[in-house]
Amino acid sequence: MQNQRSCEPDWRIIPLTLADQQAHIERSEQLLSETAPGASPVLYWSQAKSRGLVLGFSQKEHILNQAALARERLPIYHRRAGGTAVLVGPHLLGLDVVLPAGHPLVLADIVESYRWFGETWVAALGLLGVETRVIPPAEAHAQRALAKREETREREAVLRRACYASNSSYEVVAGQRKVVGLDMIRRRNGSLLQAGVLLSSESETLAQLLGHTPAEQELLRRELPKRAVGLDELARRPIPAREVILAFETILAKTRRQSA
Which domains does the chain have, with CATH numbers? Predict the structure, then answer.
């Protein structure tokens, strides 16, 4: 059994766990299935100990460049939440937040249920000297509408094979470049909010895996760095995962005390 701790009495924290990504996926499912009204909310910090590619719920492996996949020899995983492909490994810090049904942070409005999560990340990254913001819903809607225009539809369809190439409501960006991606699974007994924090960005590997042709690969290679950015680039120094974790837990504890 892993050691656990609390940043305040009603939160249970599972410290940073390094494991195969499939183990993290299964642990998240387990934590969500075990929660119930009145249970303590849970934070579960994770990193994949080796690189792999996680596909979104509706994505199939045929979207991948099979020759590049064979060269990279990356395992492929499937998550239950929406979204698109995410490269996992030591460059990405994961956080799962399990909230039981009836918890004050579980709102009837699913989009607004992301707000506190994104805003907490903005405040936490501010402690590290990194200035970011959340994407307001209106801005996210406008970006989606722009991507559907005839003149941009084909280009955006290629870019949006990568999760960090598009922004959703309350995700965390520096300018327009995503730093923290969010998704959610909601069930009757509770909700699972997930965040992926780019400690560094690896767009070249994604360009090879998600581009079917040399032209698509070049598009991804050129545009992905404009859509996503790692904390190391923003801070001009590597930021260890444990430093990010401490900042988030500090802000969470402060916020919960103020709302108590």
Answer: 12-259 (3.30.930.10)
Sign of CA dihedral 2, 6, 9, 10: negative
How crowded is residue 123: how many other Cβ atoms within 10 Å of its Cβ? 17
For tokens 């470049």, name the residue.
Answer: 177
- H-helix or E-strand spanning residue 92: strand 92-100
Q: On the CB side of 45, how many CA atoms lie within 13 Å of its CA?
A: 21
Q: How many CA atoms lie within 13 A of 44 on its CB side?
A: 23
Q: What are phi and psi of 228, to 5 degrees?
A: -140, 150
Count of alpha carbons within 13 Å of 121, Cβ hemisphere only? 29
The residue count of the chain comes to 260
* Residue 9 in this model has a pLDDT that exceeds 70: no
CA distance 47 to 122: 20
Higher pLDDT among residues 255 and 72, named by residue: 72
For residue range 164-190, what is the model confidence (pLDDT) as tens digits?
999 999 999 999 999 999 999 999 999
CA 172 and chain centroid, separation: 10
Q: In the structure, how many helices (H) and strands (E) does the chain have?
A: 9, 10
Distances, alpha carbon 10 to alpha carbons 6, 16, 238, 253, in Å: 8, 19, 32, 10
Confidence class of residue 83 from pLDDT cuts 50, 70 and 90?
confident
